[in-house]
Amino acid sequence: MRLPQTQHLTDGELYYTIHNGIRLTGMPAWGTAEKDEDSWKLVFFIRHLPKLTPAEEREMEELNPKGPGEKQEELKEEQFLNEGQSGSQAPKPRKQHNH
Q: What is the reported pLDDT for 96?
C-alpha cells in the first residue's frame, strides 16, 4: 500500500478498487452502498501509510489480533521482567483488539 504504484492512483481509483475488488485476483470487493463512507476512510488511511510515525506503527502492531501462542509468550516475558519487582504483582493487562 505504500508503494509508489499504489500511491500514484487517484483517490477515485483506490475507492473503486476497495469498493469493487479486482476480478480474477485475490482482491475481493469490500463495498456496499451502506458502507460507502468506510471505503473512503480506507482511501484516506492508504494515503496516510507512507507518513506513519514509528509510534503509530507500534500502536497498530499492538492492536493486531494475537494467537494463543503469542499471548502465552507475551505473558511469560512479562512474568520474567516482573520477577525483580517487589511482591508478586500480576502483569498489567495489555490492550487487545479481537475479531
A: 64
A 10 A CB-CB count for 38 gives: 13
Q: Mark residue 52 as left, alpha or beta (left: phi above 0; alpha: psi -120 to 50; beta: remaining).
A: beta
Whose CA is closest to 78, among 92, 65, 64? 92
Q: At 24, is the secondary structure helix, strand, or coil?
A: coil
Q: State residue 32's pLDDT score.
A: 80
65 Cβ partners below 8 Å, 6+ apart?
96, 97, 98, 99
The number of residues in the chain equals 99
Which DSSP string corresponds to 36-69? Answer: HHHHHHHHHHHHHGGG--HHHHHHHHHHS---HH
Alpha carbon separation from 10 to 13, 33, 43, 64, 98 (Å, rounded): 5, 21, 10, 28, 32
Q: What is the pTM of this model?
A: 0.60
Cβ neighbours of residue 18 under 8 Å, at least 6 residues apart? 30, 31, 39, 42, 43
